[in-house]
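Researcher: Let's try something more involved. This one mixes different molecule types, so please make sure each is placed in the same coordinate frame as the others.
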Amino acid sequence: MIEAKKFQRSYNYAFIDEATKKEIRRKLLKAVCIPGYQVPYSSPEMPIARGWGTGGLHITLAIIGREDVLKVIDQGSDASVNACNLRDFIQSTAECAVTFDALEASIIQTRHRITEERLRADQIMVFQVPLPEPLRDVEPYEKKTREMHAEMDYAKMWVSLYEAYVQYGALMDGAGYPVMVNGRYIMSPSPIPRWDVPNLHDSDCIYLFGAGREKRLYAIPPHTQVQPLEFEDVRFHIERFLGTPCAHTGEELAFLDELYNDQGEKSHVINDSNYLDKLQAGEVVFQHINPYLTQIKDERNANR
Amino acid sequence: MSATQTVKPWQLKVQGLTKIYGAYNERSVQLTGPKYDTNICPETNSIVACADIDFELFPGEVLGIVGESGSGKSTIVKQLYFDLENTAGAAFLAKYGEGDINILRESNAKKRFIRNQLMGMVYQNPREGLNFLFSSGGNIAEKLLMAGEFHVGKIRQRASTLLERTEVPTARMDDSPNHFSGGMQQRVQIAKAIANNPPILFLDEVTTGLDVSVQAKVLDMIRELQRDLHISMLVVSHDLSVIRMLTDRTLVMKNGRIVERGLTDQILQDPQHAYTQLLVSSLL
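Model: All components are placed in one shared frame. Result:
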């Protein structure tokens, strides 16, 4: 008797049908060819609602294979509900291995963080993006923002930065700080903290961004110029944690969470759970190298 | 003309500028104009807002365009400032491509460059020229940023110089123009328009809607700026007293055509065309 293997599973490998996965991969190729440009794509139905990480999920499922090792992080944590469920879902449909270790992973799907640990050329980082359009705050109409990108008409964006400086005395955007990619497109790096923004520049790994609700993909290929928007005399800077070390490791040179206990006492803890685990286990971990981090490092060493 | 002759005597040259709304045919322009006292084509019902407009604007000159409402004055400046797309005709700038390129056929990016670097525009309604979501300093900064000035300190210095020039209190630089009086809004608009020292400034009914004493002040200021900065200006107004006060030369328009042109004094003293005579005689 012939066994109908094809229908033993109620879904295709990696959940999405092959034609749609091919479409997403083609759009990704386009996104890689035009760094920072938002490519419209199909954003197919998923078992979770659009806007709950579907953009990242689409990319991961379109590029994953059985030999891949997957890591999913949500705001730096491998253990949050969101991260666990997405990881379980991808593992069960794509039949791949999963890990917490940033070095072991071949694909890292993330929400709002880049790993503290330096990434290699054979790794792919996939971002779940809520709002892909950096110009949305200054221009509500999609038709207009697309024209502005096409013609590199970024006057309004710059004026809004100027206004922020005039009103608040600083360049304000905390997360999702706008960047200029390859000297051409202004891009929203998804709401990663400013701490992570310099790590997009000239990286070894590839960064892919998916916004499921807004149906847009974009990419930063390896070794691309990525510059945060800044003025000649008002510069971009990253968060500083000197003087508020991590309560578990004493580390000051990592992105820290501010936590309060029931007594209202404040403490700081490293946000990247895998990085924290490795430091606590006494492992040697190599961080990303960027001039902003180096400057803070030098400052700390000088004070010692 | 020899190829070596590159210096143009004019700052701006307009040739055959035409704007028609609606579907038109080849007779639309012929069947409209002052001769027929209409700008609606009887065959197609298209509206010929302006047609066959030719003129030159010379360096440091103030040229007036006067005419009744609907005569096509504003249509001309709006086309030259790229707010409206023209139907036919060409415009040349001496300071752009050595005066040999029709700026009306350039790409949007190049048009934006021309708008930001080589032209300034002051609209009748400040809401058209200013972004009320930004502070008045921010509005001026927009022009400077687009000209490649990315130093906040220098931008603020230049903005306060400009606002001082146009008699807006610099203490209010970071306020939205929303909180300003009409005359102040108009002065901020002028400051923005001249931010990059453009060789050409378009003024479209700048004093209409301001009360008489404020009108006089704004006109005085425009005259002073013109004298100091030597900007070529194209002044559009339905108000002959504004034209008399500001301009050297005047074009009189009716039904989308230029019906008379000449030195302003001459036109006011000795109007030739019947319509101009009517206009001058009705001057209070």
